[in-house]
């Protein structure tokens, strides 16, 4: 029986895929078969019951942590009941990992992703994109329900520059061997390289059909990559926010970023070059 879960809860377009694969290499970590199950924010999956969730892992005696990475868990207000659902799970301990990046760059990357996905028809900034970059707001419900000590925050910039110390700190947070020598930290995984995220929009719509989505969760990742390549969308989108757009976004985001320091002890304004 799995008792301890580590959830990489976001943020979207902040390196969650790379982080998942780094940690999945650790022998005391059991990675979920589907990296991003979205279990606690997908109504259909959630109502199938917790046994469906536990079946995502091939648990072995040497494992101490069950790992998954669902960015939907910090997509408030798109998904409203995530924290309440996790808090209702009995007999399990949850720890949460939240990785962030320059929030304006994150919005730009999300716009590019949504254009490729067919969600956006033109490169516009939406209120939802801004909400996903309000990092303190996204963390508040988790901190209130589980306590600040169950949250580990880190920056994508730090993970890229110094992956080893960042991963050691993460191992300490997860209670696993921090002296393990990670082999794959030179690899960076992102949506440009992930065939599953470059599918034609019509193929992605097909995956929203419950039966198709459920079947997809049973296919190993390596096999998925081979299946997805023939269905890849050849069209790419390069989005570049204007200086005015970037300035307007910093104004909107600043109060939340200030709370990252006061409420979560994470001073990022200087790191991201925001003027005092």
TrEMBL record:
- One GO MF term attached to the UniProt entry: sulfotransferase activity
Query: Transmembrane residues, as ranges?
Result: none
InterPro entries the UniProt entry points to:
NST/OST (IPR037359), P-loop_NTPase (IPR027417), Sulfotransferase_dom (IPR000863)
Task: Report domain Sulfotransferase positions.
Answer: 6-179
- One Pfam family of this chain: Sulfotransfer_1
**Lineage: superkingdom:** Bacteria
Keywords on record = Glycoprotein, Transferase
Protein name (record): Sulfotransferase domain-containing protein
Q: What is the lineage of its organism?
A: Bacteria, Bacillati, Cyanobacteriota, Cyanophyceae, Acaryochloridales
């Amino acid at each position: 029986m799995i008792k301890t879960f580590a959830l990489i809860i976001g943020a979207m377009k902040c390196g969650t895929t790379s982080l998942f694969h780094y940690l999945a290499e650790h022998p005391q970590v059991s990675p979920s078969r589907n990296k991003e199950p979205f279990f606690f924010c997908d109504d259909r999956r959630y109502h199938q019951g917790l046994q469906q969730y536990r079946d995502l892992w091939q648990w072995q005696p040497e494992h101490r942590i069950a790992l998954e990475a669902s960015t939907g868990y910090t997509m408030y207000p798109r998904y409203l009941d995530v924290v309440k659902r996790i808090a209702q799970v009995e007999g399990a301990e949850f720890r949460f990992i939240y990785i962030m990046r320059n929030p304006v760059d994150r919005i730009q990357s999300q716009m590019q992703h949504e254009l490729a996905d067919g969600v956006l028809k033109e490169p516009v900034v939406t209120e939802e994109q801004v909400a996903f970059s309000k990092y303190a707001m996204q963390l508040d419900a988790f901190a209130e329900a589980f306590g600040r000590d169950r949250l580990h925050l880190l920056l994508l910039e730090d993970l890229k520059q110094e992956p080893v110390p960042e991963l050691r700190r993460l191992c300490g947070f997860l209670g696993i061997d921090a002296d393990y020598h990670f082999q794959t930290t030179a690899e960076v995984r992102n949506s440009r390289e992930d065939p599953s995220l470059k599918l034609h929009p019509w193929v992605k719509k097909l995956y929203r059909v419950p039966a198709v989505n459920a079947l997809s969760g049973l296919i190993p990742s390596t096999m998925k990559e081979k299946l997805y390549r023939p269905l890849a969308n050849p069209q790419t989108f390069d989005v570049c926010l204007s200086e005015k757009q970037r300035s307007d976004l910093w104004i909107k985001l600043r109060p939340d970023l200030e709370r990252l320091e006061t409420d979560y002890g994470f001073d990022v304004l200087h790191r991201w070059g925001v003027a005092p």
